[in-house]
Write a structure and sequence with these properties.
cytoplasm, S-adenosyl-L-methionine, Heme chaperone HemW, 381 residues, 15 helices, binds iron/sulfur cluster, nine-stranded mixed beta sheet, alpha/beta, 17 strands, pyruvate-formate lyase- activating enzyme, metal-binding, 2 domains, Arc Repressor Mutant, subunit A
Amino acid sequence: MNGLYIHIPFCTKICGYCDFATVAGSARLFGEYVDLLLREAERRFGENPHFIRHLETAYFGGGTPSVLPPREFERLVLGLESLGVGFRHLQEVDWECNPDSATDENLQAAISLGVNRISLGVQTFDNELLKAIGRRGTAEQARDALRRILRLPDLSGKKIRSSADLMFWLPGQTLAGFERDVRELAETGIGHVSFYGLTLNPRTVLGMRFEQGKISLDEGLYARMYRSGVQILQDYGLERYEVSNFAKWGEESLHNRNYWRRGEYLGLGPGAHSFRGNQRLAAPSRYLEWKKWVLAGCLESKMEIDRLGKKERLCEKIWLSLRTREGLDLQTLDSEEVTQISCRKIDHWVRKGYLQKSGTKISLCGDGWLWMDSVVEDLIP
Ligand code: SF4
């Protein structure tokens, strides 16, 4: 399966924990950015026409795609269509938005151009916590955006598919507060939820505060929040199909599933990653460097390229499969790869209750989901 990722790096304000390739408050760059993206697409699609012909999903991610004004978004979509991307025929076209820019005008423009799945960044319904983590927007805006999104039809008249993100382990967040957030979101009847524990990179505002001892986080609370969030979502029919993703039947993200299944994808925009053959490629992540790279013809030799050898491929297969409910089917590995995975280690994690075996498959279970990194690191040869 082939996926296209289109990065929209703009955000109205940089959140206190954000470590993505984003540019704050840059309305003057919107027009230039769309021109550059189309230039990159023309160049890179031209090198790989077969890939675009067999595209099945597209994902507008960020940054915040919803800050792009409808006329620029339309120009981008029509430009990509003229280069061969048939948005209206793809299985899934995702569009990320934030509550403060999920206006009716933006939502309608996205849907009329072929978007059929909307992901809303809620993070929490607690205004104090939103302030503490430096997020723009309020809980009321998130509730209002959710209500409107959940009523929207897609182009075929069916209810649009939707998802919302929550965060946990935020400074000052209590277990009860997080459970309230999860319950409130599940009560809306939404078909897909992602939740992520806060990660603190020392380069971010919150990361620096943590390093200076100005905020503290309780290690034990992380596990309690994760377990409890999973349980609440399950009670509402949202099953975990990946370590941080939960869906009702048929509501899983096809685009993200392609990443976990090691399907091919092509990323456009600063810092966007692509996966082709056994190579992982990344464009320059800083806006100005990316712009120079595009203007110089998007030379692949100037991208960061990671060529995966046998060992790296096996590590990826273990790492990516085990994050999903399906787990790792040992039958899909070649004979040399199978011999590299120690049965003794698998049995150790099965006895501990972190892994389960079913025929030729192994998958996480119990607290294995929480300690996935330790299990995977141990299994990786
Ligand atoms: S909205 Fe998302 S991408 Fe933008 S600054 Fe916040 S976390 Fe980063």
